[in-house]
Amino acid sequence: MNDNFTPKITLFHCINTVPEIGGFSLTGQDNFELQTVKLACSSMVKDVFLLRAFEAGSDAVIVLVCPEGQCRYVEGNIRAKKRVAWVRNLLDEIGLGGRRLSLSNISAGNNVAASQIIQNVLKDLEDLGPNPAV
Amino acid sequence: MNMKASSRLQEILSNGEFAVTAECGPPRGANPEVIRKKGELLKGWVDAVNVTDNQTAIVRMSSIAACAHLLQMGLEPVMQMVTRDRNRIALQSDIMGAYSLGIKNILCLSGDHQSFGSQPDALNVFDIDSMNLIRTVQTMREDGKDMSGFELNAPPSMFIGAAANPFADPFEYRVIRLAKKIDAGADFIQTQCIYNMDRFKEWMKMAREEGLTEKVHILGGVTPLKSAGMAKFMNNKVAGMDVPEALIDRMAGVPKEKAVEEGLKICLETIAELREIEGIHGVHIMAIEWEEIVAEIVESAGLTPRP
Amino acid sequence: MIVGEQKPILEIKEIIAPYKKILILGCGTCVKTCFAGGEDEVAVLASALRLACKKDGKEIEIEEFTVERQCEDEFIQESAPAISRNDGVLSLACGAGVQAIARRFAKSPVLPGVNTMFIGVLEKQGVFTEECSGCGNCRLDIFGGICPVTRCAKKLLNGPCGGSQNGKCEVNPETDCAWQMIIERLGILGQMDNLRIYVPPKNWQTSLSGGPRKLVREDHMI
Questions:
Q1: How far is C85 from chain B, CA to nearest CA, in Å?
Q2: Which residue in A87, B268, C45, C178 is a FRET match for C25, CA 20 to 30 A apart?
């Protein structure tokens, strides 16, 4: 447990979920850095981007996608899910911890859900500690 | 020297007698006592004994050696030979060696894939298939030449056998395959063990219609069941096996202590039915690791004394 | 195409352990198509290896470069500058490509990052199947276009064996029995009589069994 670090989170999101991440009020914890990456569709999240986010110093990476069956491009969120699962496995294999990477489905405009997800990841990071490869 | 002297099995079948053969597996080790003991149990009850060749791809004493041990005891072996482990050079070499030792019957098979056995990491051979092997032995016997065309100093005049499985797929094609094996040179056929008599009878009918029963001696295979568990296992886990539900139910329907008895009953019923089928010239009893039961089966089936 | 699979990352990490500066060299043809060693895969592997090494406090510099194919000199020579800058090359090409690099750049350690598997096709998105073993004497004309040398586990030319059940191979219940398929195809083609023809033993001299092969086309040599 290490609560002396400022968690850095990279959040990839489909613009159809939440158009803009900003103005979130997170009660309790606001000591963290959030970098957001907007994607036209969550399927744009390639494996290498997720890994490079960790190389750039992120402690956790979140991917927000539309609910299944509601992807504007039909299967984009399914592809994102498969890729995230693959990278999680890779992160486990190299010992970085697949838990640092997560994917969540949220319905359009659900800022409350988005905030909750970030909150949960921050909680996880209390356990996981900072990125060991920084 | 008359190198075309027949094997005992060949004589019995040529004379139109109902032949009885059994099977025994060599030991997993260099001690021949196991083979001798099995031989003792079978002597006098059968006309010939098949000796398996690293069956299920599990490493055992070689078939040729085990056959030689049986010969010494006065039994007539049928050497089984698979193409899985040896190339054409080794196969032809062993055929000549076997005949020189007095082994006069051969059963030509492809062999179970090595992934089933004790050495799944081995490289398999399959240089030639069982059809090619049948033809090779025939050529060696009839032309006195090996596969390269070289004239042998003496031909191995083997009685050639092949396997047939009426229970594998595709069904319609199985009789064409039988015809092909006969053309390649098969003198006798031993079938996979029979539980689905209806399917077997249909296959025999098709074989008769093609005139095949005039050209080859067919011996129907039987294996006595010991339990419902064994019946289920064979149906589900053994490649090319067909055990009808009705039979599994029948085995399950008797108390455990009576299972063996029921299995033997079924076996004897099968043999009795086989004797009635036109074109069937014998029975091949495969009592796997249960050689002691063969005597009882042969006796109860009224097939003693052997000629 | 040649189909291969990238080695497990921990195995690769072991293989490159002795080197401080590594070039990961990708190939844009076969291995790209089967997601083992194309440009994208090079990027992912490089990133993952950096993370893995950094995590262990191991110093490493990884450069990334991809050529069209590693089996032709014309393309591999483009990687010369990158190769000279690094202590070793991790090639993600098939075994032929790895050896071509090693041959051309004899003074650089060349390491394999992919397990080359077979000559095959893309059956459907994400699924690759083995089709040809390069026996050097093709008789697909008599087998209805289905190769028993490659797709029958026992290489039977006069199949099927007694283990064929429900159209599946005894070795793997998910593998189609090649001979079942041949019989069905010959039925469709009206060539069932092929099945009655005895196919003699194969001459394996044209296959790898006769030693590594070479093809020379004098008409293309000046």
A1: 41
A2: A87
